[in-house]
Design goal:
The chain is mainly beta and about 230 residues long. About 5% of the residues lie in helices and about 40% in strands.
Length: about 230
């Protein structure tokens, strides 16, 4: 089982029963070290797309805004979450609060259609709260970190900007490093993370730094059937 890059252009299962080829530099040569059947391909979860993954919003901030690129699927229901982040004394571990979650219907203003939006908020069920984030093995959820509240997401009808707002206890601001934002094209109950499970055939394990190519055969192509909602819209 290998973690994949946090991209969701394609839906869960697209590469199931396909082939993975794994390359590695061995003795200064780029070598094929494994070719295996793909048992399970998953690409749905939370992504730190608004800002680089290591960027935090100020601890004193209570709002932020952003705009999706013009190619983003429209209309699409987008889920966003915010967490408060602190670190251990030696800065080797990051601890996140339980998340506050909101969703809205993104509408591309460039397509000439009528503008629509909606908002909702609420905490994730405890069984869906991520305990670790792929690619950030030292980041954990901690009940000791106060979570943000009152989180809302609204698309401005005139500018197209997505406006996010939240609240945080004033007494707790000094104890955190800041806030981190995530988005997803999938509701929490449908998220399965980002991974590729390969058939166990005795070949070498995938290591950090390996280059992995995946392929499959499709008899026909449908962007709506095989791409995530952020690519083709709803």
């Amino acid at each position: 089982l290998a973690d994949t890059s946090l991209y969701d252009q394609y839906i869960n299962g697209l590469f199931d029963n396909g082939t993975a080829r794994v390359y590695r530099i061995v003795n200064n040569q780029f070598s094929l070290i494994r070719k295996s059947k793909i048992i399970r391909y998953r690409a749905s979860g939370w992504q730190s797309e608004f800002l680089p993954a290591d960027t935090l919003l100020s601890p004193s901030s209570t709002q932020a805004s952003f705009r999706f690129p013009g190619w983003y699927g429209s209309p699409s229901v987008i889920w966003v979450k915010i967490v408060a982040v602190t670190t251990s004394v030696d800065n080797t571990n990051a601890f996140e609060s339980s998340p506050a979650v909101a969703f809205f219907t993104w509408k591309n203003l460039n397509d000439g259609s009528a503008q629509i939006y909606r908002t909702a908020s609420g905490a994730l069920p405890s069984q869906m709260q991520p305990q670790q984030h792929a690619g950030d093995v030292n980041s954990f959820t901690s009940s000791a970190v106060s979570p943000p509240t009152g989180f809302t997401a609204v698309q401005n009808l005139s500018s197209g900007l997505i406006q996010l707002q939240w609240k945080y206890p004033a007494a707790a601001v000094s104890s955190i490093r800041g806030f981190r934002l995530y988005r997803s094209s999938w509701p929490s109950q449908q998220q399965e993370g980002f991974s590729i499970a390969l058939q166990h055939d005795g070949t070498p394990q995938i290591l950090a730094g390996d280059l992995v190519f995946v392929d499959t055969t499709l008899r026909s192509w449908s962007r709506k059937q095989f791409s995530s909602v952020r690519i083709h819209g709803t």
